[in-house]
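Researcher: Re-running this chain for the archive, since the previous output was lost when a drive failed. Same request as before.
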Amino acid sequence: MNAHSSLRRHCVAALFVAMVLGGCAGVQPSSTEDRGRLVAALTAQADRWDKAIVRKDRRAIEANLADDFRQIDGAGNVETRQSFIDGIITPELEITPYTVEDFDVRIYGEVALLSGWTRMTGKYEGKTFHTHYRYIDVYVRRNGEWKIVSVQISKIPG
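Model: Regenerated structure tokens:
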């Protein structure tokens, strides 16, 4: 590979990134009111999803996840859509209702980042657990529907 072909590849990559980012900027909510409605809708969707997880509502959990969903958990493990769902609805897991604090919604065109922190308690295989973590859920709007494509969890010590 010569310097010219390397430079050309970098220029093509930079142009692609600029086009993608420019496209996202073009679909921002048109007004503060529109943005407010979208934030409220995503907040309500996230709240319904949290409640579906606690009650192990497979249908509601699945409905909120994109087919290509991935989660990176607090230990760095990657979960697929199916392994995530199976882990949540297993009879060995009981989650006590929890609240989310420091909740934030950021919108970038067809992508929304929902983040916050929570303390979750429950039982797994009969043993009580307490976790405290920050998370970010990445939602993407496809065909007019917002679905989670990725979740990242970071454990908070203590």
